[in-house]
Amino acid sequence: MLKDVTLAQELVELDKKHFMHPTSSIAQQQEHGPSFIFTEGKGVFLTDISGKKVIDGMSSLWNVNIGHGNKELAQVAYDQMAKLAFNSCFSTLSNEPAIRLAAKIASLAPGDLNAVFFTSGGSESNDTAFKLARHYWILKGQPNRQKIISRQKSYHGVAMGATSATGLKPFRDFTNSLAPDFYYVDGSSIEALRQAIELEGPETIAAFITEPVQGAGGVNIAPEGYLQGVRSICDEYGILMITDEVITGFGRTGTFFGIEHYGIVPDMMSFAKGVTSGYSQLGGVVLSDKMHQDFIQLSKDTLLHGYTYSGHPTACAVALKNIEIIERDNLVENSKNMGAEMLKGFQYLQEKHSIVGDVRALGLMGGIQLVKDKETGEGFEKILSPKIVSEAAKRGLIIRAVTFDQDTLVFAPPLIISKEEIAQMIEILDETLTAVEQELAKGSLSL
Known about the structure:
This protein is 43% helix and 17% strand.
């Protein structure tokens, strides 16, 4: 035990001195060290260096869809690494896993989405979609089509183009060198999109990008008819429609891709995260047949875009096995069914707790709004969700707070989660909310 404590102390100090954490408070890290140092994962559970076991209510970062500790994926990665760990796919070089995966994704994607460009992750995927959209219009003789429109409260990543498209202003305020020609519209109003297009001029707009369900913006489910209306407007003005399936893809919402709920097909679809369940770094963009054929006919020079790890054979082999497991184990259906159970649990909490406002879920992607007054929807003067997240973690549940112009808890447990594990998650939330409400009533809550 003493050895474990000594190791933990050593790692904490090394973490504080050398490891800059992504999307984290530097001040918090320096004062307290890492909140958890995880050493093992199994199913929906993570275990830290002290032996504490917690439910991973976020699939780590919306991405460990098949759960932790899957030995089939570990074996596939080992086998591929031993055979061909990596080769470049520049200059038309290729490998079998990349070819097979491109074909598999094309077979799963809706409509005529059939050609795949591989990246290493979601930010790169959305940057790629923007670059391909602009290059497409150059090839089509319309180089002035370069503006990208997205929705307020959207999140598309942290690369320069992806950040520029993100509708959450704090991410854009982080840096002062954003890419030009990115615009943001009310994410619930078709008319707002039309007005923006008319104001900027349709002949200047390359693409509109949207998440089927906004993730980091608070799990905001699109209003009825909204995405169908967007598709119609994009068709009317000749604008490319991009759907960002980085979070919503590979079963997360109870369909293989989130856009399937709405019966429409985009011109491009970005993906990452769940394609490998986080066991390897991979992302990509799927293009429609029409766009691909136009590229084939019009592109006479080298396509000057690509990443070192585009088509990485090990990552692609892992993705193929991951998709096989999702299909074999009926995890898309389980996401749908367990998502319904999770929503029932949220509704139970909503009835029981005065601070629980709106609750929502689509598949295993859910949100709980925290309010001071249910009747008016008034929030607390100081954001409450980080406190809930901290208290839930102490009780054995990892979830996430969204605090951008709201006070929301978000959830995305692994698609393998069982009814019993959902119940355990709701029980921890119930205990956490009760404890926080008691502190609020006493006036002793420290935020």
